[in-house]
Design goal:
This protein is α+β, with helices and mostly antiparallel strands. Helix content is 44%, strand content 12%. The N terminus is likely disordered. The structure holds flavin-adenine dinucleotide.
């Protein structure tokens, strides 16, 4: 199988058109025969047949090993093309156009990988980046706790040093994909006598280690996409600490900034690959729409989606010149979450009675539930997607919190009052 090597595509002067051509010719060499022609000609039957026959796991491996799954990651770790975000957009345009299946591991690829690239050791990058890109090792994010969600810096899970290891005790909640994960990004308190933001450290935890207990939580959709995770004397080698001891908040901010990008419609899973509907797909599905009110709602969705795309492009250009993700990711995280809820509302209204039913999915532990199943099996149910969208304004930070961040860190307004900020964490009253 002839594939472009990362070294070949990583040419600083390469034009967007040349990148698109290279991506197309690589796809032509690896996709089943007839796939690209079927997409180009709108032959959905042939596309669906070819898509169903494709092994999702094998395909993710091919995509990951080629570097196309994670085009901005440094090629030297065996899973990236070292492209800047603007160049990666050209690659992703072609992958999206040809409706290429993508890894469902949005947490690992969208947040874990970029955090390791920015803050991890060489050993961590060499060990962990490649299996992440190939979707062979799934990751989860262990930040939220029953007593610490929006105020995640107040968390109570403890990490206590024991020689070259850390011993972890505590509980996390809403941990998406924990039941399928090999690794977790864990934020834990290493110094309870420091103020809450300064006593945290960041670890990569083995989700299969003794003492990790994962219990699924069933959502409104009937899926069990997220979990409670209990950690009882779990040992983590110090080599799996990311960033200096006590500097976990800075590392966590890197994860959270990237989470906002991943949830803003700018991630590689945006569009078709996410299993959700875009305004154009919705318009195509219901065309011709004779009712004037519905036409107006669809037109507004189309405009809103364009605005999000343009804002994402602006943020990507800023990252291209200035390096890492900044607080402006909160703009499109906020816009995308509220847009998707409006979109799903219109979708379900236009669908009529058919929008009320869907095929339930397995809730047994280990089931490929929710968006995982949608992405892997190339399907989405309108009613399930509508229900799932209700979480968009909560997950990855609520819309209220996004507005706070925008006010303080983008517009420069005074900081929200928080009298616990400078107190030792141990002295701050807590309910849990
Ligand atoms: C589908 C889904 C998946 C998730 N996946 C993960 C995951 O994988 N890993 C993980 O760590 N977490 C995950 N979460 C948790 C998520 O990050 C939290 O739910 C979120 O940050 C809100 O925290 P909370 O639920 O504790 O609500 P709270 O923080 O208790 O907030 C309750 C309400 O108060 C408001 N509020 C709180 N503080 C302020 C403030 N300072 N100013 C204004 N309003 C405020 C909030 O906006 C909200 O309306 C997930 C959540 C969902 C819904």
């Amino acid at each position: 199988m002839a594939i472009d090597t990362p070294a070949k595509i990583n040419d600083g002067d390469i034009t967007a058109d040349a990148l698109r051509d290279q991506t197309r010719s690589w796809l032509a060499s690896v996709l089943p025969e007839g796939w690209m022609e079927a997409v180009d000609s709108g032959d959905t039957d042939t596309y669906s047949k070819l898509r169903s026959a494709l092994s999702y796991n094998d395909w993710c491996k091919t995509l990951g090993e080629s570097g196309y799954a994670t085009p901005t990651w440094p090629a030297e770790y065996g899973a990236g093309l070292s492209l800047n975000p603007g160049q990666a957009r050209s690659v992703n345009e072609v992958l999206n156009h040809y409706r290429v299946p993508r890894p469902f591991n949005i947490i690992g690829i969208g947040m874990g990988g970029p955090t390791l690239i920015a803050c991890g050791t060489e050993e961590q990058k060499m060990q962990l980046l490649r299996p992440l890109a190939t979707n062979e090792e799934i990751w989860c994010q262990l930040f939220s706790e029953p007593g610490a969600g929006s105020d995640v810096a107040g968390l109570a899970t403890r990490a206590v040093r024991d020689g070259d290891e850390w011993i972890i005790n505590g509980q996390k909640v809403w941990t998406t994909l924990a039941h399928l994960s090999r690794w977790g990004m864990l934020l834990a308190r290493t110094d309870p006598d420091s103020p809450k933001h300064r006593g945290l450290s960041y670890f990569i935890i083995d989700m299969q280690a003794p003492g990790v207990d994962i219990r699924p939580l069933v959502q409104i959709t009937g899926d069990a996409e997220f979990n409670e995770v209990f950690m009882d004397n779990v040992r983590i080698p110090d080599s799996m600490r990311v960033g200096p001891e006590g500097d976990g908040w800075r590392v966590a901010i890197t994860t959270l900034m990237n989470e906002r990008i991943a949830l803003s419609g700018a991630g590689s899973l945006a569009g078709d690959a996410a299993g959700g509907s875009t305004s154009e797909k919705l318009i195509a599905r219901h065309r011709p729409v004779s009712d004037l009110g519905s036409r107006q709602r669809l037109a507004q969705l189309f405009i809103d989606e364009r605005l999000i795309k343009l804002n994402n492009q602006r943020a990507a250009e800023k990252r291209r010149s200035g390096g890492e993700a900044g607080p402006e990711g909160s703009i499109t995280k906020l816009m995308q979450a509220e847009f998707n809820q409006r979109l799903q509302k219109v979708a379900i209204d236009l669908e009529g009675p058919g929008g009320m039913a869907w095929e339930g999915q397995g809730t047994e532990p280990g089931a490929m539930a929710g968006f995982v199943s949608d992405v892997a099996n190339n399907r989405s149910d309108i009613s399930r997607t509508f229900l799932r969208a209700q979480a968009n304004t909560i997950e990855g930070g609520t819309s209220n919190i996004m507005r706070n961040i925008l006010g303080e860190r983008v517009l420069g307004l005074p900081k929200e009052f928080d009298d616990s900020r400078e107190k030792a964490w141990i002295d701050v009253p807590r309910s849990v």
